[in-house]
């Protein structure tokens, strides 16, 4: 990448995000709409950083009750057990099945937390105009987006269990409030990954290159 | 922008004016999330009830996070932690109580572990077999709240059902236990709820709970007695077995009743004290204010006469023996039996016929007149005490007062503290005397005269036999020849009859006799007829129409 790379932004052009048509924006502030597909044109996603921040903060808030409130409430004859995610991990570990405990720990506790931290790091790095390690950050972003779709697995398992284990007088499983918050964390982090504009990552790179050039 | 203006062939974007706010509306989401999370947290904090600690001897079946605290079968809290106490001697259970039940955590509230209990008098806590043990709770009456309790070892008496508690004092616990039934007219009316040694260690205090409405039948005059097991007593009245119910037989029990003679009274107050009697008879014993003690002296064996043996007047019970012992006759310096007994004039008066009762009661009331009456009975009519056998099998004996007009004259000795009543020897020693007199009479029989008479009778018998011998001889010589002739005639007649029968045999039954031949022929004819009949029936079976159409 020697010399100045011609980017759309530098050339004063905007690519439609929907149909990828390269257009000339109306003016610098208002890019206008794509003449082909009608989608709103944006040089960079509007308020990308702000929105992502908002969603990440919302997800972080929801992450606390998701871990503190019970995910599933199982009722047998007279006993009622409310299990939180960490409680389940501890139970699985203490009952000897540490591989399962590890899976639950990674999928349900560490992955959402990792997504939040990763997105937060990306946002901070963009806001600070951090130079270097663009490729690593881009890969991190791709991983966050990829993992997002698998994070609903917990919610999926919980809803399945609740639907299947309804042996009324003997045993029944009811969803706890925690699972709602957990689902909210997953959805909000997915949305946050969606609103984050990865092009912002490369702005500093092109800026740097421009400075170099 | 310089590059953009150069490419005119590219289409020009359209302008849609749009108002843009500086701050994104997406911030509503984290605010909403925060509000919800804070709301849940606030609700949690607000709904948090008190946390109480309960100290138990052991934590059997109690699990942190699982065991619940139940009041009237409603869960009011959950055990949060189970720890050993600092000195490791007991278990400290920390339970979170629902806010709605916070008002119940008062000083005298009770906690205990509910587990399946199978006692002889019933099964309780069966539900815990499936659900696991839980902590039972019973509200207190105090107003000051408390957060640390010591758990009970045994479930307390559930006092929310109407009824009252009473305290019974007994010599010993017998076979009673907590939960032993209390019966009223053999209806289960309550149960033993607690027992403890009295403070002085000389009695057992048994606390019972009598359910409503039975508790209203407990008044100051009510008697309680131990109906535990079965009561087998052997007395002069015979074998006596008493029991209340099968449960009482196994698990022990109490019974109460208000005797008919006790004055009507208000129902007893709760926690009133009563004496627990050993058995129904002693419990229901009427107080005998006019009981008098008397002494009897006997010159015979007192074996079989025990303390408590009845004293009867004309067979009706009127008192009982209170002591059996020895004494020295002051006149003769001879050892003799001394029997002390008590008489209950009320009992005798109660058995009198109605018009006499008034007079009898008067008699019983005035001591001097009663004594005079008794003296007259003894001196004029010969009322005497006597030991009699009550039961031949058990050998128990009793003191009986009966009239013996032919008894030697005697007087009641009022000089002593306890009046000495005249007695006569029992009839059992008389038995021997009677046998003796029978033997004496046998001795006096005129055996020699009897022997002479017997000899005379034998001589006469001899003569008679001789006469009989002569009669037989005469019969021999006169009757026997005629008899011989008659027998010969009979013999001849028999021989001719024999011949006649033989001839008949020859004529009729010989193989070549005409009778036999005719018979054989006739039989043959019959056989032939039978054969043709069979042919006919066979034909008819095959051709039934032949009956109508004929044989073709």
Automatic annotation (TrEMBL), chain A:
- One Pfam family here: PqiA
The UniProt keyword set, sorted, is: Cell inner membrane, Cell membrane, Membrane, Transmembrane, Transmembrane helix
Subcellular localization = Cell inner membrane
Q: Which residues cross the membrane?
A: 53-78, 98-123, 143-167, 173-193
Would the keyword Membrane be found if you checked this record's keyword annotation?
yes
Which domain of life does this protein belong to? Answer: Bacteria
What Gene Ontology terms describe where this protein resides (cellular component)?
Answer: plasma membrane
Q: Which InterPro entries match?
A: PqiA-like, PqiA-PqiB_transport
Instruction: Fetch the PANTHER family from UniProt.
Output: INTERMEMBRANE TRANSPORT PROTEIN PQIA (PTHR30462:SF3), INTERMEMBRANE TRANSPORT PROTEIN PQIB-RELATED (PTHR30462)
What protein name applies here?
A: Paraquat-inducible protein A
> Which organism is the protein's source?
Candidatus Accumulibacter appositus
Report which gene this protein is encoded by.
Answer: pqiA
From TrEMBL, chain B:
Q: Which residues form the Mce/MlaD domain?
A: 49-140, 163-251, 292-402
One Pfam family cited in the UniProt record for this chain: MlaD
User: What superkingdom does the record give?
Assistant: Bacteria
Q: Does the keyword Iron apply?
A: no
Record keywords, A-Z? Cell inner membrane, Cell membrane, Membrane, Transmembrane, Transmembrane helix
CC terms in the record's Gene Ontology section: plasma membrane
Where are the annotated coiled coils located?
Answer: none
Cellular compartment(s): Cell inner membrane
The answer on whether this UniProt entry bears the keyword Manganese reads no
Q: Where are the transmembrane segments?
A: 26-46
Protein's name in the database: Paraquat-inducible protein B
Q: Which organism is it from?
A: Candidatus Accumulibacter appositus
- As recorded in Swiss-Prot or TrEMBL, the protein's gene is named pqiB
